[in-house]
Amino acid sequence: MIVMTPEEEKITTRMRELLASVPTYRPEYPCYARRHANGISVAYRTTELNPTTSTHFDFQMSGDVAYVLYIQRDEKDRDKRIGQALYLAIEQLVREQGCKRIELTPSGSGKKGIWESLGFQPGEGRSLQKML
């Protein structure tokens, strides 16, 4: 069992509430927040980290910026907007936590359009950012 601080527990509980609207969400899947020197990291997993059979995400909040490290959805859920639903849950949480900007770096060349449709603009290098 993971022991959490009250702050970590509050963020984890809220993340789970927001994930409840995602069709593939199950309360038994691990979801947790952890405070560290650079801010707070939040993670969600459905299975072992397998690039084709796992739905998961990791992001970090540091000051008023949230960094989406990755969002992955199970291959069988392709074209069901599961990734978008996960992102929207993350965006809602980071807004509530006072973040003013979200940054990410798309993993594939074709992914940039998806993020631009969600309001992201070019940042430094290959990164994209969205002001909240």
Task: Describe this structure as you would to a colleague.
By secondary structure, the protein is of the alpha+beta class. The protein has one domain (6-131): Aminopeptidase (3-Layer(aba) Sandwich), CATH 3.40.630.30. It contains three helices and seven strands. The protein has a seven-stranded mixed beta sheet with strand order 1-2-3-4-5-7-6. Strand 4 (65-72), helix 2 (82-96) and strand 5 form a beta-alpha-beta unit. The model has no long low-confidence stretch (mean pLDDT 89).
Helix/strand order? HEEEEHEHEE
SS strand fraction = 25-35%
The number of helices is: 3
**CATH level-four homologous superfamily name:** Gcn5-related N-acetyltransferase (GNAT)
Q: In CATH's first tier, which class applies?
A: Alpha Beta
Distance between the termini: 35 Å
As residue ranges, the low-confidence spans are none
Largest sheet: 7 strands, mixed
Question: Helix- and strand-based class?
Answer: alpha+beta
Mean pLDDT: 89
- Counting structural domains, the number is 1
Shape: globular
Write down the Rg: 14 Å
* CATH topology label: Aminopeptidase
Helix content: 25-40%
- Total strands: the figure is 7
Query: What would you say the CATH architecture is?
Result: 3-Layer(aba) Sandwich
Reading side by side through the largest sheet, how are the strands ordered?
A: 1-2-3-4-5-7-6
